[in-house]
Write a structure and sequence with these properties.
Blueprint: H1 2-32, H2 35-51, H3 62-108, H4 111-129, H5 132-142
Length: about 140
């Protein structure tokens, strides 16, 4: 007898799903805005509802139960997207600041000034290494 009852329950559930599938998909899609995600959420919700059929009460409102499951699963998907987008935004913001810094540094770069500073450094170092008399002679002849 319980086999017939289980089969009857499965047939009723199957008919319930077929009759209401489009409504549930429309509900999920209205929040997720992605058809494949909405279909996944609805299917996962139907499976969750079926797997917990032993908890249904005699006059359970399956519509309300399923909509609640869909709502919770869709909310989870959206919250996950939100976390991912915030992380991407932080990374993008960091990359943009770093790029701005490189651009401003390059714009401020004066190659001839770098070269002149480098030459002056070499001359000063060489002068310091010369004997004092040679350094004085060089300085007087050049400056």
């Amino acid at each position: 007898m319980s086999g017939l009852r289980s089969l009857h329950t499965m047939n009723l559930f199957s008919r319930f799903f077929q009759e209401n599938q489009e409504k549930f998909l429309a509900f999920a899609y209205s929040y997720l805005r992605d058809k494949a995600e909405a279909e996944d959420v609805v299917m996962e919700s139907m499976i969750a509802l079926w797997e917990n059929r032993d908890r249904w009460e005699e006059n359970s409102n399956l519509h309300a139960l399923l909509l609640t499951i869909i709502k919770n699963k869709a909310l989870h998907v959206l919250e996950h997207k939100q976390v991912r987008l915030r992380a991407e935004e932080t990374i993008s913001s960091h990359n943009l600041r770093e790029l701005d810094l490189r651009i401003s540094t390059l714009k401020a770069c004066e190659p001839d000034q770098i070269f002149n500073t480098e030459i002056q450094h070499i001359v000063n170092k060489t002068l310091q290494e010369m004997p004092e008399q040679s350094r004085k002679i060089f300085m007087l002849s050049r400056y």
